[in-house]
Each structure stands twice: as C-alpha cells, then as structure tokens.
Specification:
The chain has about 300 residues and is an alpha+beta fold. It has helices at about 1-5, 10-20, 55-65, 85-90, 115-120, 140-150; strands spanning about 170-175, 190, 205-210, 220-230, 240-245, 250-255, 265, 270-275, 285-290. It binds heme C (HEC). Heme C binds next to helix 1, helix 3 and helix 5.
Length: about 300
C-alpha cells in the first residue's frame, strides 16, 4: 500500500534518487535543517516562528514538508494538508488507517492519530514524513511538541479575520470537479466560512450517485446509488462530512440531496445557504467528482 503510493507519483522517484546521493548528509530533507527543524522555504523570507498555533504549524510544517505529498487528488488516505483544507480534514475527522482514532482529537494529543504517525508508533503504515529518516529527517520531539501543545489547547482553528456579517458560503469541497482523486475518497468534505447549525442536519439526507454523463443533465444515467452518512463533528462545526457506505470504484460521481430532504443549511447566526437548487428532474446535486483508481 505504502509502496504503491510512493511509486505512484513520478516526482518521488527524483526525490528518492536525490536523497540517496545525499544520504551521508542528513539535513537536506525538504523544509528541515540539519537538526530536523523546519527552515524557511526560501525567497519569501523566514516563515513566522514555530509556535503552538495552527497558522504557524501550517506555515512551518504542513505546507513545506507534508503537502509535498498530502495535496490534491493524489493525497494519501484522502488527507490533504495544504492550507485550504488541512484544518477541516484533520480536526475531529476519523483517520482512514485507524478509523477508531481521529486524526486530531482536541485536548488529547496521545489519541490523535497524527501524533502517532509523527512519533512513529501508529498501528498502520510508516512514520511521517513518509520515508523519514532515510529520505528526509523525521520531525524532532521539540517540533512535535508544538503540535501536541496546539492539540492540548483544544486545536483551535487558524486565527482569521472573520467577517461575521459575511453571508454563509461554501469555501471548499473535497474532492472537487477539477481534479480526479486516485483512490476512493474516505469522505467528501463540504467546508463553510461559518459554523453550522447542526440540529438541522439529518445524517441520512444525502447519497452519492455514480453516473454516465449524457448530452444534457436530463439524459444523465445513474448507474449506481451509493448510500452515504452525513456528519458534522462537534470539534469542527465548519465542515460537513459525507461518508460513502462503501469504496467507490473508478468513475464519475455526484453528491445528491435526497428527494424531500432540506436543501438548505444555516449557520449559528441563522444565515441560510442553498446547498443545491433542484434541477428540472428534481435532483439536488451538490457537486460532482471523478475517481480514477490507478491499479
Ligand atoms: C513522501 C510523501 C509523504 C510525506 C512528505 C508525508 N506523508 Fe503522510 N502519508 C504518506 C503516505 C504514502 C501515507 C499512507 C501510507 C502510510 O501511512 O504509511 C501517509 C499517511 C499519513 C497519515 C494517515 C492518514 C489517515 O487518515 O489514515 C497521516 C496522519 C499523515 N500521513 C500525516 C503526515 C504529516 C503530518 C506529514 C508532514 C510532517 C506527512 N504525512 C508527510 C506520504 C507522505
């Protein structure tokens, strides 16, 4: 499994070869200095110093070190660690490898899967960053301590200048229609700019359809209906997660609101947003995406 991921990405071959020739000179890992401490990515001056704050962890660790692999349609285990998606895919989200453990469980670093992966004692797979300490340094205990501290502090979201008066909008959908994913997505994430009023959300209000696109929306053929469960974690009210009941094979898919289910969500301030406008055929399609599983 790990090997397939590793070989599945052409650039990694280059990284591997480069690292082999530098093997005697530990410290040339991406984004880390000789002591395994994060360094700036160059050009734009040093990043803000590493602290137990999400934005700082993103800028110093997730973006330069992790999102080399954990990005886009090829992100391993569906975990994207780029700045746009990392928080919503980490906090309160069950890990794909050990679903009984959340990737980040606020207040509980020991039971946060990301910490187990970084410290190298997770039940499944390799220590992160993948390939450490051979192809790149592992994070030091000092660096990991900042992530532990952020989790102990309750894993607060990045401090952004929230405009509370701004209308409720969808900020991100993973996976999206732009880039196919190369493994069955463990979950579909719909992220919002405000916290949702979860009382309105019904766990059986959506499903996924595998489709054979036709010339018009009306002629689209549904070849399979995949039941799905909808949830919003108490740990992060800004991300609505949709869990397919089984793995999705390669194909075109769309996320659909069940007939008769509410097509609107509201935030805690009472602002509503239409997630989908019912089409002529009565379908309320939220989004589409493609799965292209590479053998
Ligand atoms: C060289 C590519 C690569 C890099 C860099 C990398 N990872 Fe990974 N990551 C993987 C692969 C491949 C897997 C799946 C196989 C495994 O777990 O060994 C994975 C799995 C994971 C998982 C398990 C996700 C789940 O839901 O089960 C976590 C958590 C994780 N990585 C965190 C990180 C963090 C944090 C960093 C940065 C410090 C990082 N990774 C850097 C390739 C990478």
């Amino acid at each position: 499994m790990a090997l397939r991921h590793f070989l599945g990405h052409p650039w990694r071959t280059g990284t591997l070869l480069a690292s082999l020739s530098l093997a005697a000179c530990a410290g040339n890992g991406v984004g880390l200095d000789a002591n395994g401490q994060p360094v700036g990515t160059g050009g734009g001056g040093p990043p803000p110093p590493l602290s137990a704050d999400f934005s700082s962890i993103q800028a110093n660790i997730f973006t330069p070190i992790c999102s080399v692999c954990h990005i886009g349609g090829g992100a391993p285990e569906g975990l994207r660690l780029d700045a746009a998606d990392s928080y919503n895919l980490l906090v309160g989200v069950p890990s794909t490898e050990v679903p009984s453990l959340d990737r980040v469980k606020p207040g509980d670093p020991d039971n946060s899967y990301i910490i187990q992966k970084l410290e190298g004692h997770a039940a499944v797979g390799a220590q992160m960053p993948f390939g450490c300490p051979t192809t790149q340094p592992c994070l030091t205990a000092t660096t990991i301590a900042f992530i532990r501290q952020w989790i102990s502090n309750g894993a607060p979201p990045p401090a952004v200048a929230t405009v509370h008066a701004a209308p409720l909008t969808v900020t991100s959908i993973v996976p999206d229609a732009v880039e196919p994913v190369n493994e069955s997505p463990p979950q579909i994430m719909v992220a919002f700019n405000h916290e949702l009023d979860v009382w309105q959300i019904d766990s059986r209000s959506m499903h996924i359809e595998k489709i054979v696109p036709g010339e018009s929306t009306a002629s689209t053929l549904v070849s399979e209906v995949v039941p799905a469960r909808v949830s919003v974690s108490n740990a992060n009210l800004r991300a609505l997660m949709v869990w397919p009941s089984h793995q999705l094979a390669s194909g075109h898919y769309r996320l659909v609101i069940n007939a008769g289910a509410p097509t609107q969500v509201s935030d805690l301030a009472g602002n509503s947003l239409a997630l989908a406008v019912p089409s002529e055929s009565g379908e309320s399609v939220i989004s589409t995406f493609d799965v292209e599983v590479h053998p």
